[in-house]
Structure formats: C-alpha cells, structure tokens
Design goal:
Helix 6 runs antiparallel to helix 8 and helix 8 packs across helix 11. Helices cover 79% and strands 0% of the residues. The chain is built from 15 helices and no strands. The chain has one domain: Mitochondrial carrier domain (Mitochondrial carrier fold). By secondary structure, the protein is mostly helical. It is a multi-pass membrane protein. InterPro entries: MCP_dom_sf, MCP_transmembrane, SLC25A3/Pic2/Mir1-like.
C-alpha cells in the first residue's frame, strides 16, 4: 500500500508541476498592452489606404479575370474604361473597397500582433524562438480567418460593382449595397464568396506574413549585422519596404487562383454555378495564370507599401518596426 501510495503521490505531484508550469507561462507579462494593440489596429486600417488609391488597377485586374475578351491587357483595359466612363468609371467600387480593406487590414494586423504575443508567451521563453515559424503561420492564419468574415460582404459588393456592365447595376455605394441585399439570394450575399475569399486570403496572408518575417530576419542577420535599433529609422523602413515587396509577390502567386474564382462568381454566367462547376468550365491553368502578371505587380507593390505605412505609423508612435532582433 505504501508503495502504491507513493506512486500516486508522485503522479499527482507531476501533474501539479505541469499545471503550475502551464500557469506560469500565462503568468508572464505579455510583451505589449492594449494601447499598443489599438495602435496596431489604427496602423492596419491606415495601411489599406494604398488599396484605395489603386482602385483602378484592382478594377481592371478583376475585369481581366471576369471579362478577358473585353479586357485582355491592363493598359488597354484602363483605356477602355476611361473612354467609356471617364475617371468615375476607373474608381467604380471605391466605397466598398475602402470598407473591405479597412476591415480586413485593420483586423489582420491587430489580431496578428496579439496572437503572436500570446502564442510566444504560451510557448515560453525557451521555445518561442525555436518555434517562431509555427507561431508566425498560426497567428497569421487565425488573424486572417477572422478578418475575412468582416471583409466578405464589402468584397462581394466591390466585385459586383466593378464587373457589371455599365447601367446594369448601381455604381454608388449606397444603392449598390441595397441592390446586393435585395438580390441576396441570387447573389449569395453577404457570405456567398466567403469560401473562395478565405481560399484567397488565408494562404496569401500566411505567405505574406511568414515571408515578411523571414526576409526581415535574414536581412538583419546577413546584410545589416548590427543590432536593429542601431540603424536609423529610414534604414529600418527600407528593410520593411524590401521585405514587403518580396512577401507580396509570393502571396500574389499563391492566392491568385482563388482571386480569379471570386471575380468569376460575380459574372451573371456563373451565378447559379457551384465553385466546382466554375473550375471545370474555366480550368485550373487559366485560374492560376490569367491576370497573374498585373496582379504580381499590383499586389507586390500594394503589400510592400502596406507594410511600409504600417511600420511608419508604428515608428511615429514610438513602437519600432516589425520583425528582426533589436
């Protein structure tokens, strides 16, 4: 009996030790406070402003995917829309674009910073660095999944406005949103394209954030070998810009098939088709390649400047740039 009792005590003590160790990890002070995360939210929203400015490129890229016969190339597409509708036509869907990417970018950066800190704290000081790749990927994926739910209604509205022939669908934001709600069953509004949206955004954001963190890490390890804080803010922001373009280009390639699918779903031809039927009709090769060149150029530039705007705001707020060792 004494021996059995000792074994039980030993097992109980081991469980209590593991429980205390688990609680101790959460007892560690999280690296940042709520004020820090609130600034990250603001910086994330501001970072999406580059997408507002480039609405014409986004609109033509979307139409190249949905109407390739009328819009075979980016330059000719811009000329066609300008000739038919003027500057206003180039900025069709601007209101929905602002809301779509404000929700997406703000939520994404906000939750990424929170989850990265939380997962690092959970892993503990000994393991946070060793498992940092897993932490980057998991934090980015969870953050993007939440952001996509908030983004979906506005993205569907944006794509519908941009791909509809002039005069067939309201252009102004208010009337277009009313039309989307009125025809919500046929258009599958507000979450009909959530699956393809997550299919586009989730791999793209994981690739974006992971690649960004790794490129920054490599630059501060092999190129700028002094502690990060010893370099000037312009130098640090240059690193951000370079890493952002690389990560944006990688994200564009990975997410392009799903992006093409979202554009095609807005076409009247495919409104009653399932995703599988659209893929069979168009083909995976076209989904992966049609409009890819302009999208790499656009997405690489956009994500590069998104990171730059985000890190510039963080720098102004005294928070430092993202990634790398101090």
């Amino acid at each position: 009996m004494d021996q059995v009792y000792d074994i039980r005590v030993g097992r109980r003590s081991e469980r209590e030790y593991r429980h205390r160790r688990w609680n101790a990890r959460w007892a560690h002070e999280i690296p940042h406070d709520n004020a820090y995360y609130s600034k990250c939210l603001t910086g994330g929203v501001l970072s999406s402003s580059i997408r507002w400015v480039l609405t014409p490129l986004d609109s033509i890229k979307t139409n190249m995917q949905a109407n390739p016969n009328k819009f075979p190339y980016l330059s000719s597409g811009l000329r066609t829309v300008y000739a038919e509708e003027g500057v206003r036509g180039l900025y069709r869907g601007l209101g929905a674009t602002v809301l779509s990417y404000s929700f997406q970018s703000g939520t994404k950066y906000f939750l990424y910073e929170i989850l990265k800190d939380q997962f690092s704290t959970l892993a503990g000081e000994d393991h946070a660095h060793a498992y940092r790749d897993l932490i980057y990927v998991t934090a980015a994926g969870c953050a993007e999944a939440c952001a996509d739910v908030l983004m979906c209604p506005w993205e569907m509205t944006k794509v519908k406005v941009q791909t509809s022939a002039p005069g067939t669908f309201p252009v102004a934001f208010g009337p277009s949103l009313v039309a989307m709600m009125h025809n919500r069953r046929d258009l599958r509004f507000p979450f009909g394209s959530l699956g393809p949206l997550i299919g586009r955004q989730l791999p793209g954001t994981i690739a974006n954030f992971y690649t960004f963190e790794k490129v920054v890490e490599k630059l501060y390890t092999h190129v700028l070998t002094q502690p990060k804080d010893s370099y000037s803010k312009p130098t640090q922001l240059s690193v951000t810009l370079i890493a952002g373009y690389v990560s944006g280009s990688v994200a564009a390639v990975i997410s392009h098939p799903a992006d093409s699918l979202i554009s095609l779903m807005a076409k009247p031809k495919y409104q009653n088709h399932t995703i599988q039927e659209i893929i069979r009709d168009v083909g995976l090769l076209k989904l992966a390649t049609k409009g890819l060149g302009p999208r790499i150029a656009m997405t690489g530039t956009i994500i590069s400047f998104q990171w730059w705007i985000y890190d510039t705001f963080k720098t102004v707020m005294g928070m430092g740039t993202t990634g790398g060792k101090s």
